[in-house]
Structure formats: C-alpha cells, structure tokens
Design a protein that fits this description.
single chain; mainly alpha; three-stranded mixed β-sheet; two-stranded antiparallel sheet; 5 strands; 4% strand
C-alpha cells in the first residue's frame, strides 16, 4: 500500500508540471509595449511556440502511457515510464529556457543593441539575396542575437542539433554576443553571421572537399590537407566577413586576434580555428585579391611588427614553411572558385565588394564623426563605425549610441508591423 501511494504521488507531481513550459509570448517574458520594437519578429515567436507545442504533445503522450494501468505494472517499469516523461519535460525546460533568455533580453537595456545587431545580420542575408536572387530556397528566419558570457561571439546554426537541447534542432540561427562586445563596430560579428550564411547556402561539405583537394594537390602532404580541411569553416567565415565589410573587417579581426606571442603563435592540434598568426596572412591575401593591396601590405607590416617567428613559436614547421605557397591557393579556392550550390558562382560573386563600396564606407565614417547619418547598409555601417572609432575624433559612447539608433531606425523601416501583445502558436 505504501509503495502504490508513493508511486501515485510521483505521478500526481508529474501531472502538475505538464503545461508549465508550453508557451513563450512577449507578455510572458516581460516585454512591454515600448520594448516591442527591439523584439524578434512575430514569426520567431510562432516558431518557438510551435516547437514547444510539439514537445508538449510528446509529454502528454508519454504521460498518458504512464497513467494507463500503472497499478498492474512492476514498480521499475513505472519508474522507467516516469523517466520518459521527465526526459520530455527536460527537453521542454531547456527549449523554454533558451527562448525565454533570448527573448526576455529585449526588455533590458541591451534591447536596442541586440536589435541593432539583428539588423546587421539581416542585411548580410539581404546582400546575398540582392547579388544572387533565388539563391535561398524561400524565406528564412533571420538570426537572433542574445547576450551571454564568453570571450568571443559565437553562433548556433539553423537546424543544428544542440546538446544543450538534448539533440533538439535549433529552429533559427542564434548569435551570442559577450556582455562587453555589444558595440556595433565589432567586425568579428560579421564572421559569426558568415558561419550562418555558409550553412544556409549549403556549401559546408562542398567547400571542405574542395579545400582538401586543393591543398593535397599542391602540397602532397596529408598533414596539411587534414589541417586546412579542419580549418575550412573558420577561413570561410573570415573571408566572407571581409566581403561583407571590406578592409575594416580585416583590421577588426586583427584587433581581435592580437594577443601575446605565445598564444598567437601556438598551434592547437585538432582545433577548428586557424593559428592566429597565419590567419592574418589569409586575410591579407583576401584583401590583395579584392584589389586592396595597400591595405594588405599595411596589415602585414603591423602584424610582422608584432610577431617575429625567429623569437620562437609553437607552429609545426610544415605549416610555417608551406604558408607562402598554400595561402594564396586556399583563399582562391574558398572565395574565388565556383560552387555547384551557388549555381556555379563563387563566394566573391554573391557577396560583391569593391572600391566604390570602400569609398562610401570612408565617407560614412566622416559623416559619423560629424554627427550625421551616413547612407549605408547596416553591414557597411559596422565598417564606417570602425574607421570613426579608429580616428578617435568621436567618443566611443557617443558613436555607439548614434550607430545603434541608426540601425534600429533601419530595422523599423523593414518591418510593416510589430508583434501584438500576445502570440499563441
């Protein structure tokens, strides 16, 4: 009798938790009417709620199986059935927690900066759509940004199965911004958007195979093929960021990567990121191929002034000695060779950037310094802000406030309506 009463109590306790995490709407996460201009789109709310509703259906199905005739089953079987309900509740809890944390931040002081970064990410996708119409198969939910601890920005791609969600696929791209990196001139943010572009363009594997073939064909060294094959995603994101933002993006990445020599010149076996020292040589080669040789020369001069291999390094000799020969091939393969999934175009074709773009960015920087609003797309506004900050003629806080405001105005102009006060899937 005590055992049955104990199990009944456990089942009753589970029943009280079934619908606690079934809905995320703006009122529930604490967004006020004045916060809604910074919130993700109605479709983001709908997709989040649809995913939660699906998990809730699984919870109820499992709970019904638990309830049905449990008194006649062995106690261990009852506990296993209860654990299956708990597993789905855990999935709902993790999903709900992720959506809650991401959406609720739009009602904080970080709301305007997060919405500004949403605008930058959305514009990167628009740049591809304009240069390569119909390249994406229908509409795509744009990336959503959120604040979190961590040294650098990071991204969770659309559809990737997340361990933090017990293998549940991510419904839309999420880009993490560290708490102290919310300023709109961080070129590394373009790098994170580029990761999502690569995944959504469907060239992840095609790109890797092409890099492997090219490196092995040039070097005949399996070690080098393995290394560059492992680095291909990060190199792609670096090169795409330069196409999105121009030379300023390369300088911004150099700023991010400039660390004491032991870190910058240490190779990490098995790491996905290229050794920082070599990474700048890849960026400089990209600038040269884009027609910005003077920027490439200046960047390398600064980098070589900071780091001298003869002082010591921890990079395999094969990587160092082959870099002058391999880096031009790797950059050419990733950015300038055509891909089947790009309809026989190259990355540089679907994200075009030229001297006219750079001239407009430079003029935009001057306008920002003068307190004026430049006529630039959001991705180029990032680079203009970088140059304005670099020249030191405007206070960083004033510049950030101005650019975030301009990006939010741009975002407001792209939306016809804002989410209503309640959204139900």
């Amino acid at each position: 009798m005590d055992l049955r009463r104990f199990l009944q109590h456990k089942i009753t306790g589970l029943s009280a938790r079934l619908s606690r995490l079934a809905l995320v709407d703006n009122a529930f996460v604490g967004l006020r009417p004045q916060d809604m201009r910074y919130a993700p789109s109605p479709r983001h709310f709908e997709v989040a709620n649809a995913r939660l509703a699906r998990v809730e259906r699984n919870i109820r199905r499992r709970f019904a199986q638990l309830q049905e005739g449990w008194e006649q089953r062995p106690p261990q079987r009852v506990l296993i059935d209860a654990a299956l309900v708990e597993r789905e509740l855990d999935r709902a809890r993790r999903l709900f927690g992720m959506f809650y944390e991401v959406f609720a931040q739009r009602g904080t002081n970080y709301g305007p900066a997060l919405a500004a970064h949403d605008a930058i990410a959305e514009d990167c996708y628009q740049a591809v759509r304009q240069a390569a119409p119909r390249i994406f198969d229908g509409p795509l939910l744009k990336p959503v940004c959120y604040m979190e601890h961590g040294y650098s920005p990071a991204t969770m791609r659309r559809g990737v199965q997340l361990s933090r969600l017990l293998g549940e696929p991510n419904p839309f791209p999420l880009i993490r911004i560290p708490w102290d990196r919310d300023q709109p001139w961080q070129s590394v943010f373009l790098h994170e958007v580029a990761h999502n572009l690569q995944a959504d363009l469907g060239i992840w594997q095609e790109n890797r195979r092409a890099v492997l073939r090219r490196v092995l064909g040039v070097s005949r060294d399996p070690f080098l093929g393995t290394v560059y094959g492992r680095w291909h995603k990060e190199i792609f994101a670096d090169l795409a960021a330069v196409l999105l933002g121009g030379p300023a993006a390369a300088w911004g990445m150099a700023d991010f990567l400039a660390q004491p020599q032991p870190r910058t010149m240490t190779y990490r076996p098995g790491g996905a990121h290229p050794t920082a020292y070599l990474r700048i040589y890849l960026l400089a080669e990209m600038l040269r191929r884009m027609g910005f040789s003077s920027d490439a020369t200046r960047l390398l001069r600064v980098w070589q002034g900071l780091y001298r291999p003869q002082r010591g390094h921890r990079i395999p000799a094969a990587l160092m000695s082959s870099a002058p020969r391999l880096i031009p091939d790797v950059v050419d393969e990733i950015a300038f060779q055509t891909r089947r999934n790009l309809a026989q175009r190259a990355l540089a074709d679907i994200i075009p950037f030229g001297r006219d773009d750079e001239a407009r960015i430079r003029e935009g920087a001057r306008r920002l310094e003068a307190g004026q609003e430049p006529d630039l797309p959001p991705r180029h506004l990032v680079s203009a802000a970088h140059y304005a900050l670099e020249r030191g003629r405007i206070a960083p806080q004033k510049l950030a406030h101005s650019v975030i405001g301009q990006l939010n105005e741009h975002l407001k102009g792209t939306r016809s309506t804002r989410p209503p006060l309640r959204l139900v899937a």
